[in-house]
Amino acid sequence: MRQVVLDTESTGLDPGEGHRVIEIGAVELIDRRMSGRHFHHLLQPDRAIDAGAFEVHGITEAKLEDKPRFAEIADELLHFIEGAELVIHNAEFDIAFLDHELSLLGDALAHRRIADACSVLDTLALARKLHPGQRNNLDALCKRYRVDNSRRNLHSALLDAELLAEVYLAMTGGQVALALGAAASPGPTRGESSAGRSRAPLRVIRASAAEREAHRRRLLAIDDESGGTCLWRRLETPDSGSEAP
């Protein structure tokens, strides 16, 4: 199963007011494991960034002056997400911005929508089902699922996508080899159980004569204290009822 965990930053809150995407970050999961592939671009929006948006992500217009425009990376983005399940926190917000960016392109891509390329899973909706009535923003979920978000002083699309990947795995069954380069232990092949794998023989340590004698005396004492009802004593010496202590 291929999934892409994605986040965006923008110049403001509403694409209907002409606001644009200025950062896209995404990481790839294959069968719930980080593949090591990611997509990340800062983008030139050709417009001012709202003060409120700047307070959230800290991205300045000067930082974006030499960055590509969305039209220049649109094909690369669509190729990266094609056929995957997109995992997004508050997906409606990010999808609206990405669809708006596609609509501004002056070619065949202008008629495409993100839903044409992939399906979408909204982790905010999932979190609200799992934790109704609680705070379910990314920081709250990181705290709830013990995901280290100490680097998140400001919003960053790629960092937030990485954090969301950890949160998503924790919410949906636990972390599975998230660390890049970590190899998961191979499971048994078809027809092979874990018990049937070859392994070194277990070492058998036998009790010494002194230990066996101490064990026998301990059972005799228990048997005496319990009025002859020590089950272990009777199992070991069926005729113990006639044996003198």
Distance between the termini: 69 Å
Percent of residues in β-strands: 15-25%
Tell me roughly what share of residues is in helical segments: 25-40%
Low-confidence stretches: 175-198, 240-245
User: How many structural domains in the coordinates?
Assistant: 2
For CATH, the homologous superfamily of the largest domain is named as: Ribonuclease H-like superfamily/Ribonuclease H
Helix-strand string: EEEHHEHHEHHHHH
Profile the largest sheet: 5 strands, mixed
Assigned CATH architecture of the largest domain? 2-Layer Sandwich
Structural class: alpha/beta
CATH topology of the largest domain: Nucleotidyltransferase, domain 5
Rg to the nearest angstrom? Answer: 31 Å
Number of helical regions: 9
- Give a count of the beta strands, DSSP E runs of length 2 or more: 5
CATH level 1 class label of the largest domain:
Alpha Beta
Mean pLDDT: 84
Q: Strand sequence of the main sheet, in spatial order?
A: 3-2-1-4-5
**Global outline:** elongated
